[in-house]
Structure formats: C-alpha cells, structure tokens
Design goal:
single chain; 434 residues; alpha+beta; four-stranded antiparallel beta sheet; 12 helices; Ribosomal_Su5_D2-typ_SF; Ribsml_uS5_D2-typ_fold_subgr
Length: 434
C-alpha cells in the first residue's frame, strides 16, 4: 500500500536546517517527528460522552525537528510564532490556572504568541505526572503545513503528540500508543483545563493510511476499517476512490456570541444524569454512553429542550457511526457521505454549534459536484468544513467552493488567498518519528 506523501523531502530538509542553526549540530543529528492533522467524518461531539467515533488523518500536519540536549534545556522556535520558548525538563510544571477557553474549546492563551510553548510544557507536565523521569530536553523547531489554517483539524492534539514523541525519544522512553493517548489527554484536560475527549489524540496516534479508525471512547477499544475495493461494479482502492476537500471560512477566532465547548459537555452530562436517575441508576457516572438507548427512548420527554437536543445528537450520532462503518467497509461511499451530511446537520440543529459563515460553507459543500457528504471539521465556530468527494470531481468541487463562498462572505473570503479557499487532501498516516 502506498504511504502518505507528506511530508516532502524539501519540508523535512528546511526544518533540519533550522534546527542546525539553533543548535550548532549537524544535519545528521536532527530527528524528525511528523504528527498529522485529523478529520472526523462521523462521531462529532460524542467522544467526551464515551460514544463511538471514527477518524482519519490527512497528509498535512506538524513537523518537529529536534536534537536532544544533555543539560535538560528545552529551547524551541516556531514557524508560526515569534520568540523562543525556554525551560528545563527537571522543573515541575503546574496546571495553567489562567487558561481562557474559547468557544471552540481551544485554549486562548495557547493561541497567542506569548504562550505558544504551553503544549511543550504540558507534555513535560504529563510525563512528570505519570512518573517518567526526564533528564534530557530538546532543541527544536516546530511548524505546521505551509499556509494552512489548521482550525478544526485538531492541531492542538498534533502538537501535543509531537512534543510527547520528541521528549520520549530524547530520553529513550518506550511508551505505547494507547499510553500516549492518555498522556496527550492529560496535557489538554489536566494542564490546560479543556474538557475534550480522546478522539483527536487517538486519530493522530492510531490512524493508518487508507483506513478509517473506529474507537469506542468508553472502552478504549479501537480497530481499523479498510475501505472495500468494490462499489457496485466499480473498482475502488483506498488511494483513488476519494479525496478529502477542506473548505476554509476565513474565521480565525471563535465568535463571541457562540456558546462554549465546555458548556455543551456539561449539558450532555446533565442530560445523562436525569436519564440515569429516571431509570434508577443515579449512582452510575453521568455520561450518555451509560444510558441504555431504551432508557433514553422511555424518558427523553422528561428532558428540557436544550438537554433533549444534546441527547438526541448523541444517540443519533452513535447510530450514524455504526451505519457509516458498515457503509465504508462495503465501499458504499454514497451512503457514507449522506451520513456525514446528516451528522453535520445534527451538529447544527441538536448540538447547536457553528456560526453563520460556517453553516453557509457547509451548505455550499453539500451542493458541490462530486461531494458525497460534508460537515464542520471541529466545532464549527471557526476554521473549516470537510467533505468527502469523488476523486474524479475533486478539482471541480474545489472550484465550486471558490466561486460560491465569496458571494455569501466576501469580506471573509477576501482574507484568504484564492487558492487557499479550498484544499484537496489525501488520507494520512499516524504520528511517528521518521
């Protein structure tokens, strides 16, 4: 099977040269971590409730070049942010009490140039909390795929995983993929105070080129589902059956009037608590995965409207994931795509995330030629939408977006270069050290 085409030799060499300039070492001493961005075709907003999710990576993401430092210093530079980040691995890191959470669930302070190193510090924090002894730091240069707005592609998980892999490699630590999922979750939940689940980290660490990763977020059970080679009488293969189309809104920051990510998590838990109490199981952890579907059907009328919508999204999305995995395994991309679009619609109507520009972009994508299905990539408060598109019509679909989106959002579209409004990608592989 052909592997992901990312990163290119030119991209890797450019990062290596930066590290050589920083460290005074040789090119041959530079180690490279690649950590891809992810998309979630089905399973939106249910990972934190222990639901079943699907994900895959794309051939874009984070490249971190580094050389181990024997004195324990961490010295970092970024291709996106100014200034150096400097600290020592033997200094105890404490959770960020001042982190401000935006509507999209991202840490506001960590999106600012003054504190762009918080994920590196968070990685040290997570390793320290799990009892790993760090003696070596890293001198490194980190950058994202050139010119790509990573909002909605879980760049935070990609960055956190990249730092974990680099620090583990520098200190000769052997850590499993599943343990790294929990370590990255500790960065985001424990260090940064976010309330997200494990979908993003799992996708970054467990994906395999040409497959759809399925994870039960309650049991942590996961497997890779291969795309069938046949769709009716049409020969398919994972390299040429489809492309991933990313359409960008131009929104760089979450709109202030959108409800926050963390409040949605609380509403889901409140709905679970009410449903469990109604069934006599109030002692069970209040997560919707612990509510039997029959209990939900029997008692959903007792939920006030907002909580009813959150529960409806959870249970309907769980079903969409199960149906979608069957469609994928049988090569039925049309059914799979329809489920993606239904997921997008439920995210808007029942989970009530998104904003006007993102909803407009979603509606344009589902009208685009060759698109099987579309939804927000992420919460939909900023960033991009994703679409699964027939490979033969990918260019046509991208052109359609570039034509239609400026008509409804001329100001936002003008902030993006014309060739950056829509980007055609392929599936990626898992995070790894090259």
């Amino acid at each position: 099977m052909r592997v992901s085409s990312w990163p290119s030799t030119a991209e890797v060499n450019a990062v290596k040269e930066k590290v050589v300039q920083m460290s005074g070492g040789s090119v041959g001493d530079v180690r490279i971590v690649v950590s891809p961005y992810r998309i979630c075709p089905l399973g939106a907003h249910i990972d934190h409730q222990g639901g079943i999710v699907s994900a895959m990576t794309i051939n874009k993401g984070i490249i971190l070049g580094f050389i181990p430092s024997d004195d324990g210093d961490v010295i970092l530079q970024s291709g996106q942010f100014d200034g150096d980040v400097r600290f020592k691995v033997d200094v105890s890191q404490q959770p960020k009490s001042s982190t401000v959470v935006q509507g999209n669930g991202a840490s506001k302070s960590c999106n600012k140039e003054l504190d762009w190193g918080c994920y590196a510090k968070g990685a040290v924090y997570a390793l320290q909390r799990r009892g790993f002894h760090l003696t070596k730091g890293i001198i490194g240069f980190i950058c994202g795929s050139d010119g790509l707005d990573s909002s909605g592609l879980s760049s935070s998980a990609a960055v956190g995983v990249a730092y974990l892999l680099a620090l583990e490699n520098a200190n000769n630590l052997i850590v499993s993929q599943t343990d790294n999922i929990e370590l990255d979750r500790l960065i985001e939940n424990g260090y940064l105070g976010l309330r997200n689940g494990i979908l993003d980290q799992s996708a970054v660490l467990l994906s395999k080129y040409g497959c759809l990763m399925r994870m039960n977020c309650k049991t942590k059970e996961h497997n890779l589902v291969h795309l069938s080679e046949m769709q009716g009488n049409k020969q398919l293969n994972s390299q040429g059956a489809y492309k991933i189309l990313l359409a960008f809104s131009g929104l760089k920051h979450a709109l202030a009037n959108n409800p926050g990510y963390n409040s949605r998590v609380s509403e889901c838990q409140e709905a679970a608590q009410i449903l469990l109490r109604a069934s006599g199981a109030e002692e069970v952890e209040p997560l919707l995965c612990n509510v039997d579907p029959s209990t939900y059907e029997a008692h959903k009328a007792s939920l006030e409207p907002n909580l009813a919508k959150r529960a409806k999204h959870y249970f309907s999305e769980n079903l969409r994931v199960k149906e979608g995995l069957k469609a994928w395994a049988s090569g039925d991309l049309e059914t799979f795509g329809k489920l993606i679009s239904a997921s997008g619609l439920s995210s808007i109507e029942n989970y009530e995330c998104g904003c006007e520009p993102m909803i407009q972009l979603f509606k344009i994508l589902i009208r685009a030629p060759g698109v099987y299905g579309a939804r927000f990539s992420g919460a939909g408060f900023r960033g991009c939408c994703l679409a699964l598109v027939d490979a033969d019509h990918a260019e046509e679909a991208a052109s359609f977006v570039k034509l239609e989106y400026p008509k409804v959002q001329p100001k936002l579209a003008s902030q993006l270069k014309q060739d950056k409004l829509a980007l055609i990608c392929e599936a990626g592989d898992s995070a790894q050290i090259l």
